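User: What would this chain look like folded?
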Amino acid sequence: MEGIKSFGSLEIYYLKCTMWDKKEIDLRSIVDNMKNRSNSGSLRAFSGIMIFCLMMAMVRGCSSSRKENASKPETAGTGTEVPESQETESAATESESLTETETAAGPATEPAAEQLHYESYYDGSLGFCGDLRGTILVVSIFADDAGTQWDPESDEDRQMQLDTVENLRVAAEYLHEQALNYGSDTEFIYDWTQNEGICYEASFDETLVRTDGGGYAAERNWIADNVDTQALKDRYEADHVVYYIFFNTGFDNSVNPWSIGHTSSYGGENGPFYDIELTNLYVRFKDFVTMPSVYAHEMMHAFGAHDLYYANYYITQEYVDHLAGSGSNDIMYTVTSGHEITNEFTELDAYYTGIADSSDDAVCWGLGETEH
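Assistant: Here's the prediction, encoded as structure tokens.
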């Protein structure tokens, strides 16, 4: 009911009713016609008929409105129904806005849902990677430095980049199978051709194909400035993130791929500290195209495994000599050529990557304790 008008002793209510098909009937014109006929002796009879018709229209309109409202779901996430008056008004507004949007810029799209923060089991205390379990996100960065470049117009370079995805697949499947032997389940997300936001291009002025790891600061800072790691973890519900930085080296390159991460942060308060696990992967070295076993070897560094082919903070020279004398096939001691990985993933490797509680070799040879 919108208002009341009086004609002598007769008060007639006029209404604007909205029928279920959303077409509006304006009854003011009917009232005006009645006013013009106010001197007629049949006014009262005509008024009675019109009031009866108006009442029936109201009943039909309200009934249709109830049916329409009954078919609408409750507001998502609240369990509370929207009041009929608000729902009708909102529906009309949305309908009008949608029409304007479609006319101006094509069909309207649903707004993106707010990304929730992923709560991982891993607390981040050992850098971006903890133990070898859970969901592991591999981010690829194709980098130019002072001595190497990727040519976007080169079919050979593009194919080499695509080959890195295949090599990551082989490495991920190998590590997944080996971890299962120690009761650890893993999922690797690495394919940047299928997953958005996990592949980048970078350019550095300095030489980063080097043996001393001196480029870590430049690479680490580039990642911190250009990649939102937490957003990627939230998006893919990842527990760990490891960065592979690929350099387009030639066969004349003599520098082996290398990795730096939290496990390299030895020496207490006075030693170096590394909080982002990253691998410098040189796609060719010493007459070889870098094979999947190298990818897996370097990946294991991110989770705490140590090189076993030279003495270091954790590994004694006596143990290195023992492995050499026994012809060890441990993947942290040697890597195999070819597309298939046939190296051994030992109990010591499981211990250092946090999926085995102990290692007989670590005890017998006085090796350093795991960081896990």
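The chain is about 35% helix and 15% strand. If you want, I can go into more detail on any region.
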